[in-house]
Hints:
- The structure holds 2 protein chains of 2 kinds.
- In chain A, strands 1-3-2 form a 3-stranded antiparallel β-sheet.
- Helix content of chain A is 47%, strand content 23%.
- Chain A has 3 helices and 3 strands; from the N terminus they run αβααββ.
- The longest helix of chain A has 34 residues, at 2-35.
- Chain A is of the alpha+beta class.
- Chain A has helices at 2-35, 69-81, 86-106; strands spanning 55-66, 112-120, 133-144.
- Chain A has one domain (2-144): Hypothetical protein apc22750. Chain B (Translation Initiation Factor IF3, 2-Layer Sandwich).
- In chain A, helix 1 (2-35) packs across helix 2 and helix 1 (2-35) packs across helix 3 (86-106).
- By secondary structure, chain B is mostly helical.
- Chain B has a 3-stranded mixed β-sheet.
- In chain B, helix 8 packs parallel to helix 10.
- Chains A and B meet through helix 1, helix 2 and helix 3 of A and helix 1 and helix 8 of B.
Amino acid sequence: MVDLIVFIVLLLLGFVIGNYLEKRHFKSIKERETEFINLPTIMLKNPLRPEGIKSYDLVSGNVVISIDYFKKFVAFLVNIFGGNIEAYESLIDRARREAILRMKAEAKGASEIINVRLETSSISQNTKNGIGAVEVLAYGTAIYR
Amino acid sequence: MRYNPKLPDEGINSKDSTFFHDFLKYSVQLFATLLILVVAANFIVDFAISHLSVESEKYLAKKLHLEGFYDAKKSKYLSEVATRLYTCSNLPYDVNISIINEESPNAFAAAGGEIFVTQGLLDKVQSENELSFVIGHELGHFKHRDHLKVIGHNIIFQSIGSLLGFESNGGVNLFLNFGNSLYSQKAELQADLYGLDMMECAYGNAVDTLSFFEKMDDKQSWKYIGATHPDFGKRIANLKREIQKRGLDTKAKPVKLKPFY
């Protein structure tokens, strides 16, 4: 009986707090995306205009976002029947956008970031009880003119 | 070439949703599937066990050496009390009751017709009638062969659990436990009624059938949700109803206990 209460509380906590945090995070992401909208972030290897470059630098942004208990349980349910785990897709979306935003924040004063790469790393998978988390690393070359 | 600043499109890579709908949909699907699986498997187990002869059961139980496992002791007086109830029950098992040196009050029926009672239970009973009712209840498990069905049901619940990887997921394990408890609690109530039958046969009344449960009742029925046994309040009510229906005497003088050793 105590197990049942703990389970329901965890599920509720995950649902209420997890959703609140996600909404808040998305709001902050959207605000910063508007703020950084004029900094081009492209995957081309070479700058579009080679002339006038004062300096360049490696910039990176990384983020680890953990899943909540509710999402984990939904994913577990979907895992049995098969299908899109949409509950996890929002996490990937958040992590990818957040990593790019952090990279942009690091590239203060840059005119563009080229050769942007996105990677996922994996710390959490190697832990014993498999803490579910999304880890995204974004890096690129910031060009200062 | 011109850079065209643009915000990411929403709703393509992720859905703005709380996923509560998914949660409900898949939960219902899963639990319906589990329900069908469990009911079907338990039906097969019950069918197989009702066709297992007592001789085969005794043969298999002998190989388990339960008596040695629990380091159990015999008591002449306890066997005498049990014999009277066995005679009433007319079950194809031999009288085989032993005491386990353990403090928590408990009694259980094991394969091959063996009954174990703990020392804690013997310390807690205050009359022979109370003791007889506990033994009568265990005989009820033999009558309905619950002592074997429980093993079968547990195997099914655990194998379904591990097959789908539920050991890692508390929620579903709880659901399985809950299902198990529904089966088990029903069996306990039936065994209680059988115990009452035995009391009626052996003593001709229902004196002290409720008193042991009343002593054990902690009035915390919520604790028994999902437990193997129903809460004592429910068991007492179940027995009271039956005693009233049969018009059994509960006021007569109880039989005194004799020393066990």
